[in-house]
Give the backbone structure.
Amino acid sequence: MKNMFSKGAHPSEFGHRQTTMLMLGLFLLVSQCLFAQSRIIKGTVYDEHKDALIGASVILKGTSQGTITDIDGNFSVEASDKNTVLIVSYIGYDAQEINVGSQTFVKVQLKPSSLALEEVVVVGYGSQKKSELTAAISSVKSSDFVRGNVRDAGQLLKGKIAGLSIVNSTGDPTENSSILLRGTNSLQGNNSPLVLIDGIPGDLRTVAPEDIAQIDVLKDGSSAAIYGTRATNGVILVTTRKANSDFSIDYNGYVGTEEFVKTERVLTGDEFRSLIQDGTISATDFGGNTDWLEAITRTPINHGHNLSVKGGSEKTNYLLNVNYKKNQGIFKKSDNEALIVRLAVNHSMLNDKLRLNVSVNSNTQNYTTTGDGSSFNRGVYSAALVTNPTLPIYKQDVNKDILSSMPEYDGPWAQPSALVAIANPLSTIETANGRHHRQRTRLNGNVTFQPIESLKFNALLSWDRYYETRGYRETFDNFNTTVAHSRDGFASRGTCETTDQLFEFTAQYSEVFGIHNISVLGGYGYQKNIWEDYWMRNWNFPTDQFGWDNIALGRGDSDIAGAAIPINSNKTSGNLISFFGRVNYILAGKYLATISVRHEADSKFVGSDQVWGTFPAVSLAWRINEENFMKNIKWINSLKLRAGYGVTGIAPSNPYLATYRLGYTSNNDTFYYNGQWVNKLTPQSNPNPEFTWEKKKEFNVGLDFSILKDRISGSVDAYYRKTVDLLHEVTKRV
């Protein structure tokens, strides 16, 4: 056995060394414990006026230990590290880190946060500090959005903006949110707000909700008038997330369901049957007990996924966002599958004086349809509420004694009499089938040149293509093709395509001259739109196998396949040309004014003397809290009074209404001439040189306030609006 001791070391000497090392270790441990003994750090937290802040948070950095200040702003916290760092924070103030060191008492003065007042709000063709706004504009950041399973960007704003009504009135998973801002403005025109995605017209589903950084709403006439004819119903400005040089990969997803909050109370089959038996109502007892609303609905499963990748350098960076959603509707055979991909690339050069942004957005949507040209047959819901609850779902379950009252129909479904004109609700869903495909592709580029700090030029170009195909069929068992019309099958096919091109150029000059702050914006815009579609229909097919894929096989109302198929095609185009300008002026940081005007022409007014329309606006604001007599009122942080007046317009939905137009009648309105049937050529509209724009004139007065160290803030607005020169079609001579 080898010697376990080192050479030249006696065993007794080794034991002595071991004892010495043990004692030294114990000494160091005790010293460390003594050194690490806790100590009490006290202090006071106060604001910019040297007033105590009650309830300020004091946390030991890197730990969850901390406390809050008392009624006098004092705090006491136990610390064990000589180099303790305290994080002191309070609502409405910038947080501070205090390196205590060996101190046992500290005084902390917090500065008011400038975030609320200096918050940047997107306005027409630019942005402004919130404190400098003179109009009724509301802004919602992504951190305040409604979270979870949302259909589109509209649902992000539910309950966030006064005067903005957001409704999803149906169970259709393909339908956009219905948005109404400050009520209805037109009899025949569109009442939906103008939606701009990074300055480009779009809709609430153009981009994924998860890809949105901020939404700003221009509510009154003075703020919206810069967009002229498109802005009568207000403007919703959607700003997408931007790329930066910090590389990151983010994913979020959800799984959810939905249900009716409340439904109408309807009679059960037994309750309905008892009313028949006692003579209260006159109806047929089919022998069943069917809850029709339960029969056509389900518990849907919805899921969505969003993946975002961004990175690059300070000069060149990118953002890729991929969003996928698959939603089942609460009604059977209703669904929606969508894939939205957006790639944005930024590049700067010439010492950041020249900045380029290129973005590509692709939106693909597919869904099942149970209506001709619509995603879901909405009549099924109302039918489920009124259909006889004693009617079974299937014919085999009908009371055998009353089968003779059923229509001559050999299919599996229990169908009421053709005189009732209401189909078996579930059969309507199951015997109808269609498929809808939508594809939207958007390319846009933005070039900004800023040669000097006060001067900026911007050019925006966009190309947007929307393409849609649809097919729909009703089987031989469908109520419409058997009981109601006595025909064998029905099919339709259609497609449409829309192309939008946009070019806008703006120049902006901003400068400060002593107590004068002025900003001038001028711009030109050109927008072109082309829309075309076609569709065809046919019925009475020899087989039920082809659906809409062999539509010429149907005989229609003749005995010849493909004869007299109802077909239709359309194509329209138009453009919008505009010149616009705006001046913002601030005097001594207290008195603010904004003046804007837009002058534009729409091709829809060809033939009228009113092709060009002018839409002016002016708004004023007074920052009362900046006055000397308000300096000692410490509980008011911000108080601004504003008033504005603006004119916006609405163009007609259809083009060429001011010109004299002729059109051919349908095949049902012909006359016999020279051995053949000829379609009539009849007037479609009379010339109308006085045909003009609908105009909305709106006056708005509002008060913005923030009190109690920004704990409470809000706005109060009152407005008066009047729409003049309303457009309405006169169909006959009065």
